[in-house]
Amino acid sequence: xxxxxxxxxxxxxxxxxxxWESLCDxxxxxxxxxxxxxxxxxxxxxxxxxKLLDQDTCRCRDYANRQQQVPDCLVLQPAEIERFHWLPxxxxxxxxxxxxxxxxxxxxxxxxxxxxxxxxxSVAGCTLAEExxxxxxxxxxIIYWVN
Length: 147
Fold this sequence. Notes:
Belongs to the UPF0260 family. InterPro entries: Puta_zinc/iron-chelating_dom, UCP006173. This is UPF0260 protein QWI16_16995. There is one protein chain. The protein is of the alpha+beta class. It has one domain. It contains 6 helices and 6 strands. It has helices at about 5-10, 15-20, 65-70, 90-95, 105-110, 115-120; strands spanning about 30-35, 45-50, 55, 60, 130, 140-145. Strands 1, 2, 5 and 6 form a 4-stranded mixed β-sheet that branches. A two-stranded antiparallel sheet has the order 3-4. The longest helix is centred in the first third of the chain and has 6 residues, at about 15-20. It is globular.
């Protein structure tokens, strides 16, 4: 019987920093501006990207210093998994926190860092720069994913 891979045998809080970071599939969805309904707590994503998101690669242009440049950038921590409900339904952090498996297209499963883009899961080429959108117009930019 084959040995289980780390994400199948470890809880999120048991992962090394490298394992934790490798869970990110690079979809870029968490880097989109979001709106929360104050009454229901439901989170709505827009197609407006953070100023640091490279819209072609869906990677942060300054990941190491993102909180200095974007103070409200949320850094995911294993100790806060109960707050992961706002992450996209396809996100590995959310899936594992909810006891679900990684999807077949995830780079850790495929061994291919481009598999998220190939599966049509990423927001590459589908976003607007935040500088191009008036913050008062964010409600008009709400999007819904099929995946």
